[in-house]
């Protein structure tokens, strides 16, 4: 049944839709033969198309990286802005971490001591671990040692 | 329970970024030629206003970006990369066309409008943003629509003129414009399938040249 196109846009649209179908289904060899006949080098087309697609990959990766950096910066800022109350002396901090590990032994594995025993952890290691645990909310769930200040 | 029933096939896996990169590197000359032609065809099809300054190269890159970011999922087990990418290209071009149609008043479409908007009847400069609050079709939109129509009519007229002395091609072009598909045209004009395909190939090759002259490649 004839369904006449009324406008220039519609006429062109119908022609281009049929041509698109043809491009999609035409044998590849035919497309290449026609390209060469028109003076185009198919190898150059491939270089250009692959270059565009590689650039799109790079753009996407850079966006991902930027997003990760922004996320990291947000987390760092959140850590910095949060006030963490730790025991004042190194001994009391060590005692608190020991209490945490005895109350929640499963955490000990997560905070790997790199083959070092608990007693070998430096004061700085202890403080860092406590800060991480505080951010995870573990300190709120821990019963402080009895001799804590 | 049927003991002989085939176990459920494992669900197809979405391509990883590494698989996508590998597929790009594996594209053949035929794939690249086809992809570029599809992208050019679709950008011309939607017209300059909907493309809004974007080229067929932007369309290719946008299609890949959608696959990478997961808004379009490529399942390598189900379909090869090049045909899948071509499908995404077609779909995004339709999306661009629809987006402009639905959001013609958005400032992002003002670039092109500003190129055709000079001054009002009294000679005062017209801003492409003037009509943003107006729900009625703006003067700018009407101007863009009429410019698109004029441009696309000129292109289709040029294609027809090119084939004015090629009777068979002229019949096929006429048939397409009347909404006929290949089998209907073959029946109507008594073409064999091979003849029809040869004519279409000729139309494609020459139309490409005409579009390239107007839009570049």
Tell me, rounded to a whole number, the average pLDDT of chain B: 83
- Whole-Å distance between the termini of chain B? 61 Å
Q: Radius of gyration of chain A, Cα only, in angstroms?
A: 33 Å
Low-pLDDT parts of chain A are none
| Morphology call of chain A | elongated
Number of helices of chain A: 7
Mean pLDDT of chain A: 86
Uncertain stretches of chain B:
111-123
The rounded distance between the terminal residues' Cα atoms of chain A is: 92 Å
User: What structural class is derived from the secondary structure elements of chain A?
Assistant: mainly alpha
Q: Main beta sheet of chain B, described?
A: none
Number of strands of chain A: 0
Can you put this structure into words, describing what you see?
The complex is a heterodimer of chains A (149) and B (217). With 149 residues, chain A is an all-alpha fold. Chain A folds into three domains: 8-40, no CATH class; 41-81; 85-141, no CATH class. Chain A has helices spanning 8-25, 28-37, 42-81, 90-103, 106-110, 123-135, 138-141. In chain A, helix 4 (90-103) packs across helix 6 (123-135). The longest helix of chain A has 40 residues, at 42-81. Chain A is elongated. Chain B is an all-alpha fold. Chain B has a domain at 12-102. Chain B is built from nine helices and no strands. In chain B, helix 2 (29-51) runs parallel beside helix 4 (81-102), helix 5 crosses helix 6 and helix 7 crosses helix 8 (182-189). The N and C termini of chain B lie far apart (61 Å). The model of chain B is unreliable at 111-123 (pLDDT under 50). Classes of the chains: A mainly alpha (149), B mainly alpha (217). The interface between A and B is large, with 46 and 59 residues.
